[in-house]
Amino acid sequence: MGYAFSISRLCCCQSAQDILRYRGGYVWQGVPDALGSYGQRKTVPDNWRGLSGDELRKATGVPTAVFCHHKGFAGSAETLEDAILFAAKAIET
After folding, report:
1. Which domain holds residue 60?
2. Full-model pTM
């Protein structure tokens, strides 16, 4: 079962264009900066990239953070609430 949520609606973040999807955990993914591009409108802080598990939870302060892609365009958490928190923190930085 798949779910998609607009972060801008859930977090009231005007510039948020990220999407959360359920894949055995909740995954957020950035939006490309242009159609067909691999660039991103917003990426996570460099020190989060490629982290997982305890290292990522410590760096982000998100209790159930699981993974952050090494290119900074996607991440996941075990709960919907923490995925929203993770994405919101990425937007704020």
Report:
1. 4-92
2. 0.71
In the block, residue with structure tokens 């990220």: 18
Position 1 pLDDT exceeds 80: no
Q: Say how far apart CA 40 and CA 3 lie, in whole Å.
A: 22
pLDDT tens for residues 12-47? 434 333 445 555 688 888 888 888 888 878 888 999
Q: Find out whether 31 and 13 touch, Cβ atoms under 8 Å.
A: no
Q: Report how many helices (DSSP H) and strands (DSSP E) the chain contains, helices first.
A: 3, 5
Q: Determine the Cα–Cα distance for residues 29 and 19; give it in Å rounded to an integer.
A: 6
Q: Please give the residue that has the higher pLDDT: either 91 or 77.
A: 77
Angle at 49 between CA 18 and CA 66, to 5 degrees: 75
Q: How many domains, the chain? A: 1
Structure tokens given for 86: 């993770």
The Cα 75–Cα 28 span in angstroms is: 6
